[in-house]
Amino acid sequence: MSVIKVIEVLSSSDKSWEEAAQKAVSDASKSLRGIKSINVKNFSAVVNDGKITEFRLNGKITFEVEN
Fold this sequence. Notes:
The protein is of the alpha+beta class. The protein is elongated and about 50 Å long. It is 18% helix and 60% strand. It starts with a strand and ends with a strand. A hairpin with a 2-residue loop joins strand 2 and strand 3. A three-stranded antiparallel beta sheet has the order 1-3-2.
């Protein structure tokens, strides 16, 4: 039986939500092993002068706890 843990993360990018998700996984993988998935809960963006300048997301990263 595997033990799975879920953590909540916030991430942002000046290019896209996809890049923000990749940054979240890349940053989490620096201290976690066995990442299985990311479930994006919320998307938001910062708007300046009528243009999106920052893409933000709130997500949950699932990883397997090692025995």
